[in-house]
Design a protein that fits this description.
2 domains; eight-stranded mixed β-sheet
Length: about 270
């Protein structure tokens, strides 16, 4: 019996226009009425996605996993759990990004700073958060450790090279993931969506075999492998599909609703 259902956001619930299908919203609503706890797990920072969380009717007591698992927070802003990377890792990651023609983005508990425009101000804000600010000398204006370092590569054909460079130079000090077509991220070595979901399940006394997860990208692999039951949309990345135990319909055909219908409602 599934007691905890975990869903990725972008590419699993949210399409490239920012739309969430009513079918998926209704399925999550129905799951909650059956007593299933729902958790959203995303690479975004929880405080930047209130509009999506409102649409998905995320409750005050439902934690949100953000920053690839580096942050677990409640809707009222309370941080339940966080893992950070040291400044030197963020500095080297930023240097790698610049070398590869990508744009560094620095995440702290209080700010999201980007050195320059990557796509357009509107697109940058959509992907990285409405609180995003541009600062060409961002590192000089930030103190302490970082939740994560993101490199935005507008040229998707160069993202694989960017990922390889991050892995080669930071892989022994950070968890490196490709979170979207254009994004490579470095977070704490112990941070992952899988580890965050395990932490939440333990707090709630939910067994691993009572958890189902669904996601579409490389940063979802850890939770797809950890959960007792997992699914990936048919148009997910090869890594996500390989990690999932069931292949759901593609994003346009409401994979979250389909997964819940098959494994929770039936």
């Amino acid at each position: 019996m599934i007691k905890l259902f975990v869903s990725d956001l972008d590419g699993t619930l949210v399409d490239h226009t920012g739309h969430i299908a009513e079918e998926d919203i209704e399925a999550l609503r129905r799951a909650r009425k059956l007593g299933v706890k729902v958790v959203i797990a995303t690479g975004r920072i929880p405080s930047t996605i209130d509009d999506f969380l409102d649409l998905l009717e995320v409750q005050e007591d439902e934690p949100v996993v953000g920053g690839q698992g580096a942050v677990i927070a409640l809707r009222d802003g309370r941080i339940l759990h966080t893992l950070t990377i040291p400044r030197e890792v963020a500095e080297e990651g930023a240097a790698i990004a610049r070398e590869q023609g990508a744009v560094p983005v620095f995440y702290t508990p209080d700010a999201i700073l980007m050195e320059r425009v990557a796509f357009s101000p509107e697109e940058d804000a959509y992907w990285l958060g409405k609180t995003l600010r541009y600062d060409p000398d961002a590192l000089a204006h930030l103190d302490g450790d970082f939740i994560k370092l993101l490199a935005a590569q507008p040229d998707e054909s160069r993202a694989a090279v960017l990922l390889a460079a991050f892995q080669a130079r930071l892989g022994d000090r950070a968890e490196v993931v490709r979170s979207h077509h254009w994004f490579v991220e470095a977070v704490n070595q112990r941070a992952s969506k899988g580890a965050a979901i395990a932490w939440i399940a333990k707090q709630w006394g939910i067994r691993q075999d009572e958890v189902m997860a669904i996601g579409d990208a490389g940063n979802d692999v850890s939770m797809l492998r950890w959960a007792g039951l997992s699914a990936a949309p048919a148009d997910a990345t090869p890594a996500a599909r390989a990690a999932a135990r069931w292949i759901a319909p593609p994003l346009a055909e409401h994979p979250v609703a389909a997964a819940l219908e098959r494994f929770v409602f039936s």
